[in-house]
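User: Please run a holo structure prediction.
Assistant: Happy to. Please share the sequence and the ligand.
User: Here you go; the ligand is protoporphyrin IX containing FE.
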Amino acid sequence: PVPPSERAIDTEPQYVDAPLTRAAGFLVLTINDGDPAAAKARSVLASTEDLIKDIQIRADRQFFTANVGIGQRVWERATGKPQPAELRPFKEIKGQTHTAVATPGDLLYHLRADSMDLIVEFEKLLLEAFGDAVTGVDDVAGFRYFDGRDLLEFIDGTANPIGLSLPAATLVGEEDPDYTGGSYVVIQKYLHNLAGWREQKTEEQENIIGRTKFDNVELPDAGADQQKSHKTLCTITDENGEHDILRDNMPFAVPGRGEYGTYFIGYSRHLWVTEKMLERMFIGDPPPLHDKILDFSKAVTGVTFFVPARQFLADLDD
Ligand code: HEM
């Protein structure tokens, strides 16, 4: 048997529980074809910790963390290991009105920091290390908007699990012993129709979200056959109680191009929980009563990754 201390190190997660920060980066890459690209990707993945330390020590006391997620398409090529139990590609969900699209992405770097320079420096060193082994797919800079609001002007992240509920909701446990300490991650980039949203009365916006706008108080759930709020559609309960995920959504914008969005990122212990939320949002509950947030928010990407325990990455060099 492995001594408890070594077991703890083996299953220590990446920075899944890092707090919301002032700045965030969401870098999505694909790994190019061929053995040399796979070998290079594996060695860069193995050196993740070194790269993080390089930024952290130079950042003085400023906050910086990086998590890397690996997608199903390249799991075996990039790691040489069997797949985590629930890892599968993001499945397109076609509702009557809106579609959750599935888009390419083999690696996700989720970066959180006090300031953008740390994120840019990390990405620069990382991409230099990868060289021609990867292709950039998307790179989004998220920022904190006033008191933690999204660009629909609602406070985003309130119902996230805290304390002991946080690892219970986000980290794989004994159900998949090779991947204990890992986490499933789903990302979606949403673009908002802000002009349309602003035409709605505040009360209508509050009914769509399920909370009040100014002071963030929860509104009562709608009845079984009625139009449900975003909050209610994303509450998943069964005989084992409520199933939470951790969201680290960030606003992003390029006003000069009329682009205002929310980058959704959800960490979960069980991938099916996030998938179920998406199904309820896009198909509706009951169908076709989809989440009205989608009438003002278009999903333009959708990718699933697994964020393995820290030691799993370090061992890729062996
Ligand atoms: C709650 C915004 C997409 C899952 C909320 C809340 C806001 C919000 C303002 C209420 C406050 C809070 O608890 O954080 C958004 C925006 C989105 C988006 C602007 C994109 C346009 C998603 C997606 C999922 C999701 C794609 C899951 C797949 C949740 C969950 C809650 C929540 C689980 C908490 C429900 C509860 O009260 O237990 N969201 N969200 N959201 N959202 Fe979203």
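The chain has one domain: 4-317.
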